[in-house]
Write a structure and sequence with these properties.
Bound molecules: carboxymethyl coenzyme *A
Keywords: Acyltransferase, Transferase, Tricarboxylic acid cycle
Distance between the termini: 27 Å
InterPro entries: Citrate_synth-like_lrg_a-sub (IPR016142), Citrate_synth-like_sm_a-sub (IPR016143), Citrate_synthase (IPR002020), Citrate_synthase_AS (IPR019810), Citrate_synthase_bac-typ (IPR024176), Citrate_synthase_sf (IPR036969), Citrate_synthase_typ-I (IPR010953)
Order of helices and strands: EEEHHHHHHHHHHHHHHHHH
Strand content: under 5%
Structural class: mainly alpha
Family: Belongs to the citrate synthase family.
Protein name: Citrate synthase
CATH architecture of one domain: Orthogonal Bundle
Shape: globular
Catalytic activity: oxaloacetate + acetyl-CoA + H2O = citrate + CoA + H(+)
Number of helices: 17
Number of strands: 3
Length: 392
């Protein structure tokens, strides 16, 4: 009953006004607050992009150092939170750990769950941006059985994350700047992407005035799926399964077969019907990292490049406008850097947190904000007489 627009998957429904991110999917354009993603990736560090998304403008030098000081002030997590990790099995997927521990932050910061106080909203955003690398690195350390590393505020955001992930208390830690810059670029490329599934989940959860930590935990849950952020993990698993260039045609054939549910992971996008501008930058970064690490003939890269070549010249992919997306090359870089496959989506969540919280803040501050409450086209039984148990 009711006269509602039927739009499964929200392919033609704008659920909000937003001034944060602009995408022209046909042209392959992505702008944050008006700035092209390529310019930001080339010229900014991740915290400048965080400032831009959250506050609307790139920081000037004073604002940049103030913002860095604010974020680093919040990098540690409460010691009690560290105990949460030990409740998980050692083989727990780190995304499962992240869903739990990020949601648990609301129990530690009752003050910043007051969503009607603009100061508290800002502190919650800063806490989340600051603590995600710490919590993500702890998820990794827990699963490999190494001690948690406290954050180091003398390092950059990306360096500190790499330090907490790969450093140990028993050795001095250094990082190649090419790798920390690549990490920073990966964070920038994932920072926001307008109303995708996880961001819409954060907005929907937040529309009931749930606290921001719980909302971000809901975004992490939505991101986990292989059709969304879980694709970076799925791409690498797929490349491993393909295992050699001569087996590619078999997988391409399966991807095109209507009766086979297999899809080429890392291809296609709801909005981009052109090359994903993030994928181009990711491919460049991939070459730089492999070159720096002296990795020649990376087997997955060879398969990925050939897969891309075939897909871009195949009628099926051309007709359906299926191009490589942001996740296609990121897994190869992350693997080369030493991340286990299960951490790939955690890195996406870490970087996307600023997008989620910026969108959440924008929504709460929008005077037109209402609780999200979609309707349905009812397809069940019409009203019918009740049948007592002994007559069924
Ligand atoms: N391989 C083979 N065929 C595909 C693929 C693919 N990767 N993606 C879409 N198609 C086909 C699909 O079968 C459908 O064909 P038909 O019209 O004959 O039914 C057509 O293309 C349209 O697909 P859709 O599922 O209706 O499109 P969508 O907009 O609902 O889905 C998508 C977008 C990203 C979920 C999908 O392309 C996909 O599953 N890709 C693989 C997973 C992936 O890489 N996801 C990461 C997305 S980018 C990062 C992020 O934002 O999270």
């Amino acid at each position: 009953t009711g006269y509602f627009t039927y739009d499964p998957g929200f392919t033609s429904t704008a659920a909000c006004d937003s001034a944060i991110t602009y995408i022209d999917g046909d042209e392959g354009v992505l702008l944050h607050r008006g700035y092209a993603i390529a310019d930001l990736a080339e010229n900014c560090d991740f915290l400048e992009v965080c400032h831009l998304l959250l506050n609307g403008e790139l920081p000037n030098p004073q604002q940049k150092s103030d913002f860095e000081r604010t974020i680093t002030y919040h990098t540690m997590v409460h010691e009690q939170l560290a105990k949460f990790y030990s409740g998980f099995r050692r083989d727990a997927h780190p995304m499962a750990i992240m869903c739990g521990v990020v949601g648990a932050l609301s129990a530690f910061y009752h003050d910043s769950t007051d969503i009607f106080d603009p100061v508290q909203r800002k502190i919650a955003a800063h806490r989340l941006i600051a603590k995600m690398p710490t919590m993500a690195a702890m998820a990794h350390k827990y699963t490999v059985g190494e001690p948690f590393m406290y954050p180091r505020n003398d390092l950059t955001y990306a360096e500190n994350f790499l330090y907490m992930t790969f450093g140990t208390p028993c050795e001095e830690w250094t990082v190649d700047p090419v790798l920390s810059e690549a990490m920073d670029k990966i964070f920038i490329l994932h920072a926001d992407h307008e109303q995708n599934a996880s961001t819409s989940t954060v907005r929907l959860a937040g529309s009931s005035h749930a606290n921001p930590f719980a909302c971000i935990a809901s975004g992490i849950a939505a991101l986990w799926g292989p059709a969304h952020g879980g694709a970076n993990e799925a791409v690498l698993k797929m490349l491993e399964e393909i295992s050699s260039v001569d087996r590619i045609p078999e997988f391409v054939r399966r991807a095109k077969d209507k009766n086979d549910s297999f899809r080429l992971m890392g291809f296609g996008h709801r909005v981009y019907k052109n090359y994903d501008p993030r994928a181009k930058i990711m491919r460049e970064t991939c070459y730089q990292v492999l070159d720096r690490l002296g990795i020649q003939d990376e087997p997955h890269l060879a398969i990925a490049m050939e897969l891309e070549r075939i897909a871009l010249s195949d009628e099926y992919f051309i007709e359906k406008k299926l191009y490589p997306n942001v996740d296609f090359y990121s897994g190869i870089i992350l693997k080369a850097m030493g991340f286990p496959t299960s951490m790939f989506t955690v890195l996406f969540a870490l970087a996307r947190t600023v997008g989620w919280i910026s969108q959440w803040k924008e929504m709460i501050e929008d005077p037109a904000q209402k609780i999200g409450r979609p309707r349905q086209l009812f397809t069940g039984n019409p009203a019918r007489p009740f049948v007592p148990l002994d007559k069924r």
